[in-house]
């Protein structure tokens, strides 16, 4: 049985999530603030963390950063913050999903199942293309032996391209693989991350195939 840690200061929402998730066959543990969430994360062997952002004592972004220092456990942020900057900040912390309140519990349960399923899929740990080498175990990227720092979301986006270097990636495919959520400004989000990767690795590393998507050069 998989264990899900819910860190949510709104008691009604925490209880609702717990009831529905347990009906789906999961075991749940709940925390009402960020510090309690950190303690429970260190104590429990959670398979997934559901995390609010506006938490007492320790906010969700800070808690997620502490979790990522020790673990790659899947994280779903569930928050009232719907602005683009907050969403990008969450994804840069390598969360798996960003869900805004109010939300559909039915859709949310599907997202939980999808996140857990994706994390069980095998993946290549070492990827290379031309002068680019990626080690997913150590979370490092090198270009001609020069190490390049990428944010969490940039790293995962580059890994997607490197895992299938000859494929043209439509924007919809990228969103499905990395974000799995509906967002009105999806083109802007993808373009921003690709622009940042180009700045760090070289302007010609990813090509824009007009009207189709993106591809490694």
Helix and strand succession?
EHEHEHEHEHEEEEHHHEE
Major β-sheet profile: 5 strands, parallel
Taken from the alpha-carbon principal axes, the silhouette is elongated
Number of domains: 2
Q: Which CATH class of the largest domain is shown?
A: Alpha Beta
| Low-pLDDT windows of residues | 181-185
Strand-residue fraction? 15-25%
Q: What number is the mean pLDDT?
A: 88
Under CATH, the homologous superfamily of the largest domain reads Response regulator
Query: What is the terminal-to-terminal distance?
Result: 44 Å
Helix/strand-derived category reads: alpha/beta
The largest sheet has its strands arranged as: 2-1-3-4-5
Alpha-carbon Rg, integer: 18 Å
CATH topology of the largest domain: Rossmann fold
Q: Which CATH architecture of the largest domain would you pick?
A: 3-Layer(aba) Sandwich
Helix content: 40-55%
Q: Oligomeric state of the chains? A: single chain
Instruction: Count the DSSP helices.
Output: 8
Secondary structure: number of strands: 11
């Amino acid at each position: 049985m998989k264990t899900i840690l819910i860190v949510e200061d709104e008691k009604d929402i925490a209880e609702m999530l717990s009831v529905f998730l347990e009906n789906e066959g999961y075991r749940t543990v709940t925390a009402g603030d960020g510090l309690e969430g950190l303690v429970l994360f260190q104590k429990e062997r959670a398979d997934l963390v559901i995390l609010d952002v506006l938490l007492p004592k320790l906010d969700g972004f800070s808690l997620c950063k502490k979790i990522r220092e020790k673990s790659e456990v899947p994280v779903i942020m569930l928050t009232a913050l719907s602005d683009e900057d907050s969403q990008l900040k969450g994804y840069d912390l390598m969360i798996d999903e960003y869900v805004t309140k109010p939300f559909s519990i039915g859709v949310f349960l599907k997202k939980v199942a999808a996140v857990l399923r994706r994390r069980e899929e095998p993946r290549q740990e070492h990827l290379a293309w031309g002068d680019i080498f990626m080690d997913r175990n150590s979370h490092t990227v090198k270009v001609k032996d020069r190490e390049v720092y990428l944010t969490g979301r940039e790293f995962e986006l580059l890994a997607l391209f490197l895992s299938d270097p000859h494929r043209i990636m439509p924007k919809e495919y990228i969103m499905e693989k990395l974000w799995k959520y509906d967002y009105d400004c999806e083109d802007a989000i993808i373009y921003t991350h690709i622009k940042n990767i180009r700045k760090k690795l070289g302007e010609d590393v990813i090509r824009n195939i007009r009207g189709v998507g993106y591809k490694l050069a």
